[in-house]
Amino acid sequence: MSVASADGGAPIDVQRILGEYARFRDSVRDPRRRALLDVHLAHMKAEIVDRDVEAVMATMVENPAFWFYGTSGMASFEGQEATRAFYASIFEVPENAVGMEMEHIDVGDDRIVIECHVLMSSDHVAIAFPEIARNLGPGRPAVLRKRACLVIPFVDGKMAGETHYFDGPYGPEDVVYLDES
């Protein structure tokens, strides 16, 4: 499995990710559920394309909560200030630094559940998750690819945060080096 682009460029193709998600959204007929997907799609676009913290925060409740289970190096947090700081750290890295390979999306009346592999570039990991960065070979371009289940609850049509369930701590087996054929 290769996460590198065909032209050797950006390792994470965010436009492809957003396109896949939009196609799924377009297949949903229930207006309430489609509205949740619209909010989450706007959130993802603001996060990984526009890199606009105000637009990200506009998709969320006043006091969002983010929880990380099953791995080390990712601290849970709550509140506007902590959420802004988290997204500010994401925006410090080059574009195409975070994404996901979606396997299954389920949308209910008050939450979205995504089974996926979370993708993070070595640049992103070094800034946002230094404890995880120890798994990377120094100076080698890489992507961390980890199986996860994301649960995104909604309150009054806005994201109340995210809960990430990982299949275990990040380790060397989760590193895909981009300089290997």
Protein architecture, described:
This protein has helices spanning 14-27, 31-50, 53-58, 80-90, 122-128, 130-133, and strands spanning 60-69, 77-78, 98-107, 111-121, 142-155, 158-166, 175-177. Helices cover 34% and strands 33% of the residues. α1 packs antiparallel against α2. It is globular. Mean pLDDT is 87; it is low at 1-9. It is α+β, with helices and mostly antiparallel strands and 181 residues long. β5 (142-155) and β6 form a beta hairpin. Strands 1, 2, 3, 4, 5, 6 and 7 form a 7-stranded mixed beta sheet that branches.
Q: What is the structure about, briefly put?
A:
The chain has 181 residues and is of the alpha+beta class. The protein has 6 helices and 7 strands.
Protein topology:
Elements: H1 14-27, H2 31-50, H3 53-58, E1 60-69, E2 77-78, H4 80-90, E3 98-107, E4 111-121, H5 122-128, H6 130-133, E5 142-155, E6 158-166, E7 175-177
Parallel strand pairs: 1-6
Antiparallel strand pairs: 1-2, 3-4, 4-5, 5-6, 5-7
